[in-house]
Structure formats: C-alpha cells, structure tokens
Amino acid sequence: MQWETVIGLEVHVQLSTQTKIFSGSSTAFGAEPNTQANVIDLALPGILPVVNEQAVAKAVAFGLAIDAEIGKKSFFERKNYFYPDLPKGYQTTQLEAPIVGPGHIDITLQNGDSKRVRIHHAHLEEDAGKSLHEDFQGMTGIDLNRAGTPLIEIVTEPDMRSAEEAVAFAKKLHSIVTAIGIGDGEMSQGSMRFDVNISVRPKGQEEYGTRTETKNLNSFKFMEEAIEMEVERQIDVLEDGGSITQETRLYNGDKKTARAMRSKEEANDYRYFPCPDLLPIVLDDDYIDDIKQSLPELPAAKEQRFIEDYSLTPYDAGVLAANAELALYFEQATKVCGDAKLAANWCMGEVAKLLNQQELSVADCPIAPEDLGLLLTRIKDDTISGKIAKQVFQAMADGEGNADQIIEAKGLKQVTDTGAIEAMVDEIIAANQAQFDELKAGKDKLMGFFVGQVMKISKGQANPGQVNKIIKSKISQ
User: Fold this and answer.
1) What separation in angstroms does the CA of 441 have from each of 426, 449, 475?
2) Domain-ending residue, one of 369, 388, 410
3) N or C terminus of the chain: which is more exposed, having fewer CB within 10 Å?
4) Residue 136 gets which letter from DSSP?
C-alpha cells in the first residue's frame, strides 16, 4: 500500500523583548537559576499582571509579515494544568480570540517547486520554567527564569506532506522571524521550538489518520530525523495490523531515539477560561498601519531584488536572503569588490564554513565584509589566485591583518610575468618529456598534471590562466 504523510507544526517563538510578557523581569539568556523571576512570575497572592506592549507589537508585525488577519480584539485565557515548573498552576495564553488570524507562508522545495503553507493562527502566551534533571541525585531542580517569557505560538494547517516540506517551512519561518526582528531564532537557547504533528493515511484517502505530536525539536536536522522516524514507525504499525495511539512523543537527537511521553490532551482537558486579571487587547487601524510601515524588507522581497539587481541565481538569492545578517554582509562585500557572484560564492562558502567551525553568528564574524570585499578585489585584479585567497582568508580570520597586508608580508603576490611562467613550464616539460609527448598526441587528461606541476614549483603563485595558455602554446609548436 502507498501511504501519504500529513504534517502540521506548532512553533513557539520567543519574542525579543527585554522584559517578560506580564512583568518587568529580565528575559536575558544565561542568568543564574531563579534570579529572573519576580512575584508576578511566581503568581504570589494579590499580584496583577500587565501586558508588555512590545510583545503585542511584535506579534502584530509577524501577522503582517505573513499576510494574516490581525485580531483587532483579542483576549487571554488560563490554560490549567499542573507541572512543577508552572508556578501558577495555569498558563496565560490565547485560545478563542488570538491576536493573529489566518495567513500563509510560501516555501520553495529543492526541485524548484513552490508550495503555500497556510497558517491557522498565531497567539501570544507565556513560557513555563524549566525542569533540570542533571546533578540532583534522583531529584529534579526547577529554574523559573523562563517563566513568563513572551512567546508567540504559530499553528499551521496540516498542509505539509514530507520532512522536506516541513524543514523548508521551518527555515522560511525562521528567516521571517529574524528578518523582522521579533526574535533572535537561537534554537540552541530555546528561542524557537517546533512541535510536529504527524499522521499517515492511504494515498488517495481524504480522512486524516490518527496523529502523534513530537515536542520540543530545536534544530532543523532533528526535525527531519524525527519526522522520518515517526512516519516509518506509523507505517510499520499499520501494516502489521495495529493502530496508532494519539500521544505526545519525544525525540532524542543525540541518541537518535524516540519514545512516547503521554497520551495526547485535547483543549477541553485544560479547562480554559478567560483570565480575570487581564483586559482584552484592542487595536485600531492606525496602530496596525504604523507597525506595517516599520516592517523591514521581507526575505521574499529581498530574494527577488537579489535576482534582479545582482543577477544571482534563485538558489543563491534564496540562501542569502534567508539570513538577514548574511544578506547585509553580502551586499557590503559586493559594494567593495563589484562582483556579486564572487561575493555570493564566498559568503555561502568560506564565510559560512568559518562561522560554522567557530560557532559564530554573522555579526560576530572576525572578518569584516569590507575586508572580504578587498580580498575578492585582489582575486579579480590577479594579485592572487583563488587558491592563495583561501590562505589569505584564514590569516585574516586569525587576525593577521587585511588582505593587502598579508599578501605583502607573506610574499603571496601572484606571478603574472609571462617570461617567468614560461621558464617554469619549460622546466616541467623537460623533466617530464614522455608525458608531454603523450599530451601532444592527444592524451588531454595530462593537462591537469602539467598545470599542477607548474603551480607546485611556483608555490601556487603562478597565474593559472597564463599557465594553461602557455602550455597550450607549447603543445601546438
């Protein structure tokens, strides 16, 4: 039997406010446990929460960025459940009237096809604390620093049909969130977490199968692995004559294992009721329009501009536009060197490699974009070859100076003197006459051997184009 996968996502995005959604406690990451939770976060008797207006503005900005309906009147409810890291005994969230209504995000797949993923809604809510299970000798520690941290939960329709589509959506969502500045998207810090609802059904069947929810995935790689594993598990169960249990599951990306956590709750299990301490949020057209006017260039518009203004391929434009910081870095480097394609290749290649190796953001790159532009200029004007440029790039990353300083200090300037290169070519031919005779006789694959030998004795400083030209002239003699 052929099976079809059905996937919907619930994504928690931490909003980049300085204080929590209902209190003045800091949201800074990395503080000592329980140093950023005040009486409101702890729900002590007599406290009254106040909504953080910046959280509201950021939620509206997201809704506008995905062409969604904005809820002009939204309100908060209490979602009741008991867990040690939820000091109130309930989570303040939105259910019946969320601040962001239906919208959509368009994604592009690896084969070039595009697809629209519908957003059901997005709502504001507070985060819970964190349970710590290490170093407590059989006990659990509770850190309430995250309690009350502002979140927007984004709920999609079940429109995705593969792990590839889900990951493409997650990456596009991440690019939008970071581009408009409502969140930093740091998944390793819990700033963006994915809950994946997965079911399978016989191909052609309209009715959905029973779904499971794999919670708290914090990387694109783990999401892809978890989906593929769960789809395979569900198909195996059904083909063996079993049935799928609606449940919440956990995936361990380090061990590549998944397990059931608890049976899946429905909304009525949480006994939602309106929060008596918070007034409805009422927005007017002027407020919404002001936020709309303040939105920066969105990734889709930036991608199209890169194609039109810089003649980049859709793939290159998409990769660069997906990261607002990388896109700015690329444009600044291009402004210096005047070659967008060369700058794009280096930004997606050597720069990205350096940042991954050192686990840095683009903003913390040790090489300024203007310095990269100067390095690329030296490739263009034949001062150095592309191969030598990689050595210079590494020296720049190590803090040895800019491209010109390193080229001068290390004597890396490319040899472009025709006479000098011809002398090297003659030397190599003399030492390898038999192979050269074969090359002249038509064994073209030996061309690489001779070019490589000349580059070797020149320590990589001979101009490769001139080397090729001189060798070809020798063949025709």
Assistant:
1) 18, 15, 9
2) 410
3) C
4) S
Question: Of 359, 392, 410, which residue sits at a domain end?
Answer: 410
- For 379, the domain range is 297-410
Nearest to 98 by CA among 126, 123, 70: 123
Structure tokens at 277: 């301490």
Output the CA torsion sign for 440, 446, 449, 455.
positive
For 378, the token pair is 């030296």
In a domain, 292, yes or no: no
pTM of the model: 0.83
| Structural domain includes residue 106 | yes
354 and 382 together in one domain: yes
Same domain, 44 and 125: yes
Residue 454 belongs to a domain with what CATH number?
A: 1.10.10.410
For residue 77, give the nearest of 362, 363, 273 by alpha carbon: 273
**Which structure tokens are listed for 173?**
């969502």
Residues 451, 411: Cα–Cα separation, whole Å: 21
What phi and psi values does residue 269 have, to the nearest 5 degrees? Answer: -70, -20
Looking at the structure, tell me whether residues 359 and 395 fall in a common domain. Answer: yes
Residues 138, 168 within the same domain:
yes
Backbone angles phi, psi at 149, to 5 degrees: -65, 135
Could you state, in chain order, the average pLDDT of each consecutive group of 10 residues for the chain (477 residues)? 96 98 95 94 91 98 98 96 90 97 93 92 96 82 95 98 97 95 92 97 95 95 97 96 94 92 76 94 97 95 96 92 94 97 97 94 94 96 88 95 93 72 82 81 80 80 78 79
State the angle between helix axes of 446-457 and 418-431 in degrees (0 to 180), rounded to the nearest 10. 120
Residue 89 to residues 40, 42, 46: CA-CA distances in angstroms? 13, 10, 15
- Examine residue 198 and state whether it is found in any structural domain, yes or no: yes
Ramachandran class of 204: left when φ > 0, alpha when ψ lies in -120 to 50, beta otherwise: left
Q: Are residues 101 and 185 in the same domain?
A: yes
